[in-house]
Amino acid sequence: MQSTDAWIQSCTASIMLNLQNYPDQDLQGLMDDESKLDALIDGMPQITLIPTDREVKLAQAKSMAECNLSFEPKLKDARTKLSQTYTETLKAKADVENMKKELDKVACQRSLDSVNAVLQAEAKKAEDESEAVAEQFCSGNLDPSLFVTQFSGKRALAHKRKIKSEKLSEILKQQHYNQPKGPQVPPRAPYPENFGGPMFVKLTTGITRQVQLRSFASLRSRVPQIDPKKLYEPEFKDPRIYPEYPFINVRLRSYDFVPLEKFQAYVDRVARKFKFEVIESYAVAAETTNVVTFKPNSTVPDSEIELAKYDRVVRIASVPSIRLPLFLELIQTHAPVGIEITVKIHEKADEDHRYIPDLLLKEKQEELKALDDPVVRKNLGWE
């Protein structure tokens, strides 16, 4: 409603702005002829855009309706699945409640302590039976194959029962420990009504209460309270200074490209977790080796294979000497098969090695050097 009022006010303001420039005769003509006033109103931009806006709104409503209709099958399937899941949940809940009732019924008939005692007795019985089988075998009254079958079965049964009994005992101890227990005060012995008078009874009651409180006081309550602000904790400074390596190159080489790339990323992540400064992680041109196999008892080549050995380098800095062995042991442990790891201090030769030589440039440089030779210059006719 507010948007409609604002639109009407905008139209009115626009008309009034246009009418301010009209002379009195034109204004009188508009008042006498309503068709001119209607034409003026119909010619306003806000009025002319109403059909277009209506068509746009209708198209948007139609598109949204079609989109909503396209979701109808999914909604029906989801509603069906939800109904099935709800039914299964109710059934599972009923089954759980029935099982709980049966469990409560069994728990009322038998206590866990009695079950634990029976289980311990059965474990002892199975162990005695296995010992009896062993004694029969030692005395020669039992066949070896039969001994292995009987002894292993009874021994396994004894171990299972023993483990179950120990686990059940642990659960019972935990339950007893979690139950809140208050101090069990022994009942006060009755006194005769006329023995010593009421003053004696009152004095005895107070002494008994003080003795009980002192006997059940915990060690924490007996320790005097100390203000934490008065505690002094000295600062222990480590005077040891560990040297650091300025630059370390971790060189990785392998014939397999994919594991090498993944392991390079792993070494980079591990170095950052060790708080090392990773300067850069780059690739070096691969070295190609030509492998030729010959036919048996002949010098005729059978096949020719080109093997590329890929090279990756991770350069790190500010490496403490106490952390470097742990870092190297970790990456060596997780290194895939076929990857060579070389760790060395960075040198200028390592920087020169990463660039590929330009053979054409070297050839032109050699030609320029050869031009300084007088014989070459004479052959070229320059001298």
Please explain how this structure is put together.
With 383 residues, this protein is an alpha+beta fold. Among the domains are: 2-65, no CATH class; 112-178; 244-346, Alpha-Beta Plaits (2-Layer Sandwich), CATH 3.30.70. It has 14 helices and four strands. It has a four-stranded antiparallel sheet, covered by helices on one side. The N and C termini lie far apart (102 Å). 7% of the residues are buried.
Outline:
This protein is α+β, with helices and mostly antiparallel strands and 383 residues long. It has helices at 2-19, 24-32, 34-42, 45-70, 72-109, 112-138, 144-178, 197-215, 219-222, 257-273, 324-333, 348-353, 359-370, 374-379; strands at residues 244-254, 277-294, 301-320, 340-345.
Largest sheet properties: 4 strands, antiparallel
Q: Kindly state the number of beta strands.
A: 4
Structural class: alpha+beta
CATH architecture of the domain at 244-346: 2-Layer Sandwich
Oligomer: single chain
Poorly predicted runs of 5 or more residues: 189-197, 199-204
Under the CATH scheme, which class of the domain at 244-346?
Alpha Beta
Helical segment count: 14
Global outline: flat
Radius of gyration using CA atoms only: 49 Å
Write the layout of secondary structure elements.
Layout: H1 2-19, H2 24-32, H3 34-42, H4 45-70, H5 72-109, H6 112-138, H7 144-178, H8 197-215, H9 219-222, E1 244-254, H10 257-273, E2 277-294, E3 301-320, H11 324-333, E4 340-345, H12 348-353, H13 359-370, H14 374-379
Antiparallel strand pairs: 1-3, 1-4, 2-3
